[in-house]
Fold each of these.
Amino acid sequence: ALGDTTITWTASDATGNTASLTQVIRIVDTTAPVFAEIGRIEIDAEGRLTDISSLLNITAVDLVDGDIDSVISGETVFESGVHQVEGHATDNSELIATIVGEVAISPRVQL
């Protein structure tokens, strides 16, 4: 677990003399979340413009906090086509992982 742990060390000699020392060990999270590799993400257009913020579900994994949902950095509304999208995930220790992926938005065809 993260946080402080107190350890008391005690030594004694053959005549029964003892001495003690208290040591505080602080456990901190220094490892950022990690994203798995993602390929191109294909989605269908929802009109002339598509808001991808609710359509993408990309998760990073953190050793301490488990699964962390990513947040898109920058624009989230795009026309049909292929776009570079950056996302990030932040754990409870404020460590950040970043991912960049391609999102292909296929135009909706109506006959």
Amino acid sequence: FYIVSLLLIFAIMGSFPLQLFVVSDTGEEWLFRVYPHLERNRFWVTNAFRTALVLFICIMAVTIPNFGLLMAIVGSVGGCTLQWLFPISFVLKVYYWELSVLKRAQYIFYL
């Protein structure tokens, strides 16, 4: 049982930076676009932003009761969106005028 728990901890520690990269990269781009004077201290500002982000996530995980249930809801909603709504939306956006009226109606009904 302890080995499984340790392996799970290592898996989370390995995947957490990958999941956080998109959020931190987008946030840093916004930060330097809105506050251009921070550009000269980019190294320190970037590290402070990432540290604050990780601390915020840790505090959220500790203070929210049943955090696993919250993450399950977020994951299921996000998974459904990625698997069902986005592909149909992309097909409608790209091929709208090439699709028959019946096919368009079918895709719109699915949405």
